[in-house]
Amino acid sequence: MATRGEHQTVPLSVLLKRELANEKIEKPDIVHGQASQSKKGEDFTLLKNECQRAMGDGVTTFSVYGLFDGHNGSAAAIYTKENLLKNVLNAIPSELNRDEWISALPRATVAGFVKTDKDFQEKARTSGTTVTLVIIEGWAITVGSVGDSRCILESAEGDIYYLSADHRLECNEEERDRITACGGEVGRLNAGGGAEIGPLRCWPGGLCLSRSIGDMDVGEYIVPVPHVKQVKLSTAGGRLIISSDGVWDALSAEEALDCCRGMQPEAAAAQIVKEAVQAKGLRDDTTCIVIDILPQEKPPPPPVPAPKKQVKGVLKNMFRRKSPESSSNTDREYVEPDVVEELFEEGSAMLSERLDTKYPLCNMFKLFMCAICQVEMKPEEGISIHAGSTYSGKLRPWDGPFLCLSCQEKKDAMEGKRPSGDRHGSESD
């Protein structure tokens, strides 16, 4: 949501057609910087520029940034940093073109988060981590998040957008209701004599968050299903700030942006961390990534040549901006707006809702392959993600996508349909 200014949701296909129709639109320049002050050594970052991927209509490049704020040790944060991106990308069929690839990212992000959590928990390690994963392809930004790290965007027009969700139980009533409905308990520490102290926590385990990756010692209603938001910047660009809770406990979004205004990303990240530590002290690992998404630098125009024979048609229009009076109705349809367009947002913890696929991505998940872990299955082994679901739609239990048995058990546990202590076996189900 933007704190200032109006915004609207526009279909992704319209935006991509608009981009293709306007020959002057180019991919942005992306510049990033990071800074950190460590207290526990449990914050980790992922910074990847210019990743390449072959697809149905050629080769595309994209950039990836991740922040992993571990707790109860660093194992979950390290494992997630090393495996999450691979799991997300593996959930996208290779034959998709660029438009379809961007449209598929929200569902692939959900599948990648859940697979990473499932694989890590099988290692029987008890640590956990928050995750904020940002994928930038052209002017499209996709953010998946669990926990209380946060990603904000300031557009070139000065509007602030929150691209992640805060999964602290203290401030998220919907998540408190979900956990209690699944069999968990939410309350504060009991100091004796009826006195309660500290933030709201989930019991058993005492975790302050409702979503994370890892945390196998807590009930499985602490889920890895991410909030996902996808937006498209105007070609004027903008600035992203991804920070752990060490920053957001001390600074508001406006304060973080204002304290580093005019600085390059590396200096801006360091300034944000400095301001946060000065305000609250170094109570926790404090990490910040700043990403500037900028219009490409264009060379100065060449000297104006002597008048020549008039050039007609498309070539003429490539080299000068048409006046509104001379624009046709078709041209006006594709005028690039100077606003941030919201493409997608969903935060439900129900996999039957999050992995539901509609046109044009109805075939994103293959018939005999698990939609989460990508394992191949025999025809009789797949279990529809809608089986036993109360999701009120037109979908039937035999409609896909399908899950393997272990991923179906994971889904049941997250929805409170299986005792949280029975994590790996199905004998008592």
UniProtKB/TrEMBL annotation:
Keywords, sorted A to Z: Hydrolase, Magnesium, Manganese, Metal-binding, Protein phosphatase
- Gene3D superfamilies in the cross-refs: PPM-type phosphatase domain (3.60.40.10)
Say which family it is in. Answer: Belongs to the PP2C family.
Provide the catalytic activity annotation.
O-phospho-L-seryl-[protein] + H2O = L-seryl-[protein] + phosphate; O-phospho-L-threonyl-[protein] + H2O = L-threonyl-[protein] + phosphate
MF-aspect GO terms: metal ion binding; protein serine/threonine phosphatase activity
- State its Enzyme Commission number(s): 3.1.3.16
Q: Which InterPro entries match?
A: PP2C, PPM-type-like_dom_sf, PPM-type_phosphatase-like_dom
**Enzyme class (EC, first level):** hydrolase
Does the UniProt entry include the keyword Nuclease? no
Q: Which domain of life is it from?
A: Eukaryota
Kindly provide the name given to this protein in its UniProt entry.
Answer: protein-serine/threonine phosphatase
Q: Where in the numbering of this chain does the PPM-type phosphatase domain appear?
A: 31-293
**Requisite cofactors:** Mn(2+); Mg(2+)
